[in-house]
C-alpha cells in the first residue's frame, strides 16, 4: 500500500506542477490527469464538459483548482466503486 500512496502523490504532483503550483490541479491539469491516468475508471474521461462537472463536484472551496485532499475524494470514490464496497 505504501507504493500505491507514493504513486498517487507523485502522480498528483507531476500533473499539478505543469501550470504553476505543485499543490493544486488546475482545470487543464485535472483534465490531462483524468484522460491519461483514469480513463478506464471515469466515464466520459475525454469529454471536457463531463470533467468540468466532476471537478466542480470535488472543488469544495470553489477556488477553481483541486488540492490533494479534494482530489483524494475522487480516488476514494473510484476505489470504493472498483472494490464494490457499499457507500
From TrEMBL:
What single Pfam family name could you report for this chain, choosing any that match?
Answer: S_100
What keywords appear on the UniProt entry? Calcium, Metal-binding, Repeat
What Gene Ontology terms describe what this protein does at the molecular function level?
A: calcium ion binding; calcium-dependent protein binding; transition metal ion binding
In this protein, which residues make up the domain named EF-hand? 46-81
Q: Does the keyword Acetylation apply?
A: no
**What is a single cellular component term in the Gene Ontology annotation?**
perinuclear region of cytoplasm
Q: What is this protein called?
A: Protein S100
